[in-house]
């Protein structure tokens, strides 16, 4: 019996909430606007951050947390950056990779890469500013990428510095459209390279590491047009053996590099040893700060929305005072009157929250398919948005619902006359 009464209360509350929207569309929608904006601010921030974090962690996982980078420039998130000191440092060399791997007991794999931006041409078509990476043979074992068509270059091709290349999906589409690029020759810096592979499409990456606009070629061929001492991005990528910590590998690498470069004990390191955890920790701090800002902005909107819901409910109580009196005179308990208005308040708040979630969902579709950057409204964020809306409705509707449940039935029925 109680269950039937409860279900009836829910049904009537839902009908009253819909009537409020139908009869007073402008007033109700303006009142719900605060909830909609608040949910949009809070959940959109979390949705964007979750997507960026997911893509970021995917990029890091492709490299691996046990890979260290010996480079000219140190990675740093925030604080003073002594670029004037670092710019005097020499770039890592392929010969240093050979020395490191010969001397190291903690490393299992090593690779070298050097990157420059160059124009890539095929007949009358060209791609400007493509990322050209000249890499050592084991590069594919230290990092992770997928070749959709063709193959990776062989050890013989790497050792001989053959003019072979693997190109990104976007480059292939621009230069060859729907034609098969395998076996054809492109030009970089006036030099011909035979295409032996095409990377699988990965889409835009928030950190600019997408293979879609990359060209991969043997490092020995890269010497023909890359100044290894110039303004380039070069790195030794060293992977630790199983069971070896990054700290152990870092200590060993520091000693080996100082020995290779013949640094005296009093001299500072003229190289940096970087690891992905530096970026990960920096972005965690950044996400925490911006997340707080999102909560503050969204919190003000939710507060305004809460007052809007309370206003609707006070008006609703006043308009239905006589109905409340009749119900109470017929034996309706205070708890059921209270519950009826609370559920109505929650329904109204949920409507505002769901509108906000729907706008975010549309935004994720636009960004994902329009800008080729995957953004997803997760179940967790949907649940959070619904939960926040429910709590706002519960808190905002409590005082009006309480005042309705305390009305005197005789005085309430007289209000209709």
Polypeptide structure, described:
The protein has helices at 2-23, 25-63, 83-86, 94-103, 139-142, 155-160, 169-176, 219-222, 246-260, 276-319, 321-329, 334-370, 379-405, 409-414; strands spanning 67-71, 107-122, 125-135, 147-150, 164-167, 185-188, 191-199, 214-218, 233-240, 272-275. With 417 residues, the chain is α+β, with helices and mostly antiparallel strands. It folds into 2 domains: 2-59 and 282-414, no CATH class; 110-238, no CATH class. A 6-stranded mixed barrel has the order 2-3-8-5-7-6. A hairpin with a 2-residue loop joins strand 2 (107-122) and strand 3. Helix 2 runs antiparallel to helix 10, helix 10 (276-319) crosses helix 12 (334-370) and helix 12 (334-370) packs antiparallel against helix 13 (379-405). The two termini are 34 Å apart. The mean pLDDT is 83.
- How many independent structural domains? 2
User: Which stretches are low in confidence, meaning pLDDT under 50 for 5 or more residues running?
Assistant: none
Write down the overall geometry: elongated
What's the total helix number? 14
What can be said about the biggest beta sheet? 6 strands, mixed, barrel
Q: Find the count of extended strands (DSSP E, 2+ residues).
A: 10
Strand content: 15-25%
Q: Which structural class do the helices and strands define?
A: alpha+beta
Instruction: Sketch the topology as an H/E string, one letter per element.
Output: HHEHHEEHEHEHEEEHEHEHHHHH
Strands of the widest sheet, in order across it, are 2-3-8-5-7-6
**What's the overall average pLDDT, rounded?**
83
- Report Rg: 32 Å
Helical content band: 55-70%
Amino- and carboxy-terminal Cα gap: 34 Å
């Amino acid at each position: 019996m109680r269950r039937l009464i409860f279900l009836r209360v829910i049904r009537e509350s839902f009908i009253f909430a819909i009537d409020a929207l139908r009869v007073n569309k402008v007033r109700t929608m303006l009142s719900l606007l605060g909830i909609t904006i608040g949910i949009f601010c809070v959940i959109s921030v979390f949705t964007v951050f979750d997507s960026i974090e997911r893509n970021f962690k995917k990029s890091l996982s492709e490299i691996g947390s046990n890979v260290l980078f010996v480079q000219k420039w140190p990675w740093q998130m925030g604080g003073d950056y002594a670029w004037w000191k670092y710019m005097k440092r020499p770039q890592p060399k392929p010969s240093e990779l050979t020395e490191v791997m010969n001397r190291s007991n903690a490393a299992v794999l090593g690779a070298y890469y050097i990157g420059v931006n160059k124009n890539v041409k095929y007949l009358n078509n060209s791609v400007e500013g493509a990322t050209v990476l000249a890499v050592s043979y084991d590069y594919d074992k230290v990092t992770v990428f997928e070749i959709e068509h063709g193959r990776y270059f062989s050890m013989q091709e790497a050792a001989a510095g053959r003019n072979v290349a693997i190109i990104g999906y976007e480059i292939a589409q621009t230069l060859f459209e729907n034609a098969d690029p395998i076996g054809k020759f492109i030009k970089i810096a006036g030099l011909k390279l035979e295409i032996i592979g095409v990377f699988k499409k990965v889409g835009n990456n928030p950190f600019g590491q997408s293979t879609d606009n990359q060209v991969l070629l043997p490092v020995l061929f890269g010497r023909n047009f890359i100044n290894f001492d110039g303004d380039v991005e070069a790195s030794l990528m060293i992977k630790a053996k199983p069971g070896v910590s990054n700290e152990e590998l870092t200590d060993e690498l520091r000693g080996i590099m100082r020995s290779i470069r013949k640094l005296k004990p009093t001299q500072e390191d003229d190289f940096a040893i970087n690891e992905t955890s530096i970026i990960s920790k920096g972005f965690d701090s950044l996400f925490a700060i911006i997340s707080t800002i999102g909560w503050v902005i969204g919190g003000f909107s939710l507060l305004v929305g809460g007052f809007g819901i309370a206003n609707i409910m006070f008006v609703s109580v006043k308009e239905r005072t006589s109905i409340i009196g009749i119900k109470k005179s017929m034996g309706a308990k205070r708890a059921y009157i209270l519950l009826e208005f609370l559920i109505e308040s929650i329904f109204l708040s949920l409507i505002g929250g769901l509108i906000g979630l729907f706008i975010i969902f549309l935004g994720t579709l636009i960004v994902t398919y329009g800008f080729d950057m995957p953004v997803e409204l997760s179940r967790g964020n949907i649940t959070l948005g619904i939960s926040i809306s429910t709590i706002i409705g519960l808190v905002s509707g409590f005082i009006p619902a309480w005042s309705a449940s305390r009305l005197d039935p005789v005085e309430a029925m007289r209000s209709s006359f």
